[in-house]
Amino acid sequence: PYDVLVVGGGPAGSSAAIYAARKGIRTGIVAERFGGQVLDTMSIENFISVKSTEGPKLAASLEEHVKEYGVDIMNLQRAKSIEKKDLFELELENGAILKSKSVIVSTGARWRNVGVPGEQEFKNKGVAYCPHCDGPLFEGKHVAVIGGGNSGIEAAIDLAGIVKHVTVLEFNPELKADEVLQNRLNSLPNVTVLKNVQTKEITGTDSVNGITYVERDTNEEKHVELQGVFVQIGLVPNTDWLEGTVERNRMGEIIVNKHGETTLPGLFAAGDCTDSAYNQIIISMGSGATAALGAFDYLIRN
Ligand code: FAD
């Protein structure tokens, strides 16, 4: 069996695996996609001590660093469930069972879907989630941004510099984004903000040709012709597979203490899948290190 089995190969998992392996204990890492969300990121300018880099480049460095140590890397493998018997038993989608004395979950998060007709159908045909990745595809076109929180308004400001026009749709009567962002947005000539509206449908034929929404105070249905829709309503933690094993909050984030411990002894968690206040690369790496040191402490006591 492993001493430490890390589930998830993003910044948190990579950091956890390196910290564990450096203690000279048997370490494995299972990842559906090594690199995680970093792979979908274009420019990174806040990873302290590296002035500027690109996501795929950072993901490659993460893997290279993990490979410096005798860590078993099991890439393109998805965890299905976990059970604690004498040892932890992690079942993979492919049916294999991996055993370990301790486990660090770092399965990150994914974009939240808005769940209206057309969203699935037109994914990558006008429906997008990553303005940094897909913004340039909509140069000179009209796009919508669903969501008026920080990520939605940041996306709208970013897109306004590339596309012809941006329409922001916010469900609540007011935007939730920070005031500095709202002020910046309001200073832009090619942005329309619709508040108190509910997105009803993303329409199209081969690709997106519009969005239908309802004005919540009048119940009136309206349609805007446009070519792209960016969904920016937050992240969902990848923790469904842990159902019934550890305590999670209302959002599905795993609750951890300052040692990275969950409610199940020997099971630790780190990064965007936890109830951490902020989701950033440097923060995920820090919590990955914390969870590995926590797991090491647990191993020497048990
Ligand atoms: P993730 O990066 O989500 O990694 C999760 C890992 O778990 C992946 O390997 C995934 O494949 C794996 N996994 C998931 N489910 C399973 C399963 N069931 N079984 C096995 N493996 C599984 N942060 C910054 O600091 N600066 C930025 O400039 C920045 N820009 C961003 C831009 C975009 C477009 C996005 C999406 C994010 C950005 N972030 C940025 C946030 C940053 O990428 C995340 O906070 C960070 O990647 C979280 O790391 P993590 O290891 O917790 O999770």
TrEMBL record:
Residues 2-286 form the FAD/NAD(P)-binding domain. It comes from the Bacteria. The keyword Nucleotidyltransferase does not apply. Its cofactor is FAD. Keywords: Disulfide bond, FAD, Flavoprotein, NAD, Oxidoreductase, Redox-active center. Belongs to the class-II pyridine nucleotide-disulfide oxidoreductase family. Homodimer. This is Alkyl hydroperoxide reductase subunit F. It comes from Metabacillus endolithicus. The lineage of its organism: Bacteria, Bacillati, Bacillota, Bacilli, Bacillales. The chain holds residues 208 to 509 of 509 of the full protein.
